[in-house]
Amino acid sequence: MKVVQILTPNFSNISNLNEIELGANEKMTLVQVIIGDITQDFQINATLADNAKLDVHTAILARNKSNIKYNYNVEHCGVNSVSNFNLVSSLSGQSHKETNMTIHFCKGAIGAHGNEKEMVILADRAKNISYPIIDCDEENVVGNHSLSSGHIDESQLEYLRIRGFSEEQARNIITRARILDILNLIDDDDKLQYVYEALNE
Amino acid sequence: MASKTPKGLTPEIVREISARKNEPKWMLEFRLRSLRKYLAMPMPSWGPDLSELDIDNIQSYVKPRKEMVRNWKDVPDDIRQTFEDLGIPEAERAGLAGVGAQFDSELVYHNVKSAVANQGVYYDSIENAMHSKYRGMVHRYFMQLVPPEDHKFAALHGAVWSGGSFVYVPPNTSVQFPLQSYFRFNAPGAGQFEHTLIIVDEGADLHFIEGCSAPKYNIANLHAGCVEIFVKKNASVKYSTVENWSKNMYNLNTKRAIVEAGGKMEWVTGSFGSHVSMLYPMAILNGVGASMEYTGVTFAGEGKDLDTGVKVVHLAPRTTSYINAKSLAKDGGKNTFRSLVKVTGRAKNAKSFTDCQSLMLDSKSTSNTVPKFDISCSSADIAHEANVGKISEREINYLRTRGLSEDEARALIVRGFTNDVSKELPFEYAAEMNNLIRLEMQENM
């Protein structure tokens, strides 16, 4: 099952997903793209049974005075269950984002794998807070988290500037490139159209 | 006066402690202000369960039978034997620049080698420093980094602190050998609240070692010490701790450093003991190019809830921090790694890397990683990696095919896992740490 959720200035089908329950061997891919001046809380709560797999790919391009709180909680209850959370954020203007990510391995979730990966690009007056928590009540599991937060590499900007792009255009191109892998997961052309409209604003 | 204060905490007890130490008026007022803060503050609402810690049943001051001396021969036989068994006098002879040995609430021995004293290094009990030519420094710096308002147990410490060391290293002085303070806690149902205040002046460097241990009793003991370190411009401090408190101990210690431009603070920590620990050494990187490194290992065995970690605040440009934390949980132990990396808008081009790895050694135990990243600077580069897992069967099988038993293979892998910490310690302390790991691995095997 694949779910695509979009939140742009002109379109929204996003909703909180508080009760994702993946039964044995069930798989779900969730793709989220959130663009604009947004003040909102987002919530994902999932429980995974034996061999269940959840993949979440989220891109957040927050502008102006956005204030975003993003909560992601996954309970690995089943053996060999797998979760992957890939979050790419670009916070421009005076945006503020707080991300709470919790992977919990319940006792008995033997062979479970939970991964969280977050990449953040910050503007000068933006702020990012991340709480990537891994709770582990089972020995035979693997939990990983990685975070990289930083700025756009000057050499990349310079490369584009000398080819005629303005500073802002160059930053947009690089930011788009960072979320391209997530955009490629959207197979609904209408939704993709809304995303590109928002990106071009 | 009796050698112990009554149980509980009242203004009269605080006045009695202050009177025993013949303190200046400002310190008594500070203690009483801290007590008021303590009584007004709630217990922490997060972290390990502290509900069985009853402060009304803790003796906040226990005085040993004899005053502090500067020769081991003058230490009472039974106390000296305790420190001999811990290897402290031998370590002093072998390669320490000075030693302070605390027994319950007071130092029983304090000495610094003449060559080091001749460099202008001052190392003495904080009580003596308060009456020395350094009294102005004590007044200026005491509990400025960890004010009583910081948290409930900082306020408690401010009210009843006793013992600990004061160190001053003058500018451009390199202390070739480490100084060591060892805290031995022998009284059942008592608290130990030593204060360590270290000021390392511009361009100087120091390695300070702290060791802690206690016998086990059936009633709770409390350790709520405080360490404050001032690292001046281009100075460097390494603070190493191997802690092996007994399983009835609540270890609620606070350690904090402020690092000025070009300075470097290095925390090396091995936490093995106590019933409950809440310990998060912190560095405030206050000057351009200041840096912090944290290397720590925590081993939570049976009956232990060890909540440890580190905090760093980047306040200035080009500051750097590197955090390398290893934790192990075994026999139903609970391990929590908790950290904070805060980068303010002023910390242009700051860099921080956090690596925390947890190893679960059985399915009865619990391991949590709870890092927090608070980033307000666009040009900062922040990276974090965390892994939780078990010992790989492949690694065990590899070692077994080379003749090791499964237990030996596991112990070898654990020693390799913690090697980052032991290699940062002087040989004797690395050996002690490896010995503690071996004992933890043997328990219940």
Structural account:
The complex is a heterodimer of chains A (201) and B (445). Helix content of chain A is 18%, strand content 52%. By secondary structure, chain A is α/β, with parallel strands linked by helices. Chain A has one domain (2-200). In chain A, the strands form two sheets. A seven-stranded mixed sheet of chain A has the order 2-1-4-6-8-10-12, with helices on one face. A five-stranded parallel sheet of chain A has the order 3-5-7-9-11, with no helix packed on it. In chain A, a hairpin with a 2-residue loop joins β1 and β2 (11-12). The longest helix of chain A has 17 residues, at 167-183. The model of chain A has no long low-confidence stretch (mean pLDDT 93). With 445 residues, chain B is α/β, with parallel strands linked by helices. Chain B has helices at residues 11-20, 25-40, 77-85, 88-95, 114-117, 126-129, 135-141, 152-160, 393-400, 406-417, 419-422, 427-442, and strands spanning 98-103, 106-112, 122-125, 165-169, 179-184, 191-192, 195-200, 205-213, 221-223, 226-231, 236-244, 249-251, 254-259, 264-271, 276-279, 282-285, 291-300, 305-314, 320-329, 334-343, 351-360, 366-375, 381-390. Chain B is 24% helix and 36% strand. Chains A and B meet through β11 and β12 of A and β22 and β23 of B.
Short structural summary:
The complex is a heterodimer of chains A (201) and B (445). Chain A is built from three helices and twelve strands.
Counting copies of identical and different chains, the oligomeric state is heterodimer
Overall 3D shape of chain A: globular
Reported for the largest beta sheet of chain A, the result is:
7 strands, mixed
Number of helices of chain B: 12
Query: What is the strand content of chain B?
Result: 35-45%
Please tally the β strands of chain A and state the result: 12
Question: What is the mean pLDDT of chain B?
Answer: 89
Total number of domains of chain B:
2
The class by helix and strand makeup of chain B works out as alpha/beta
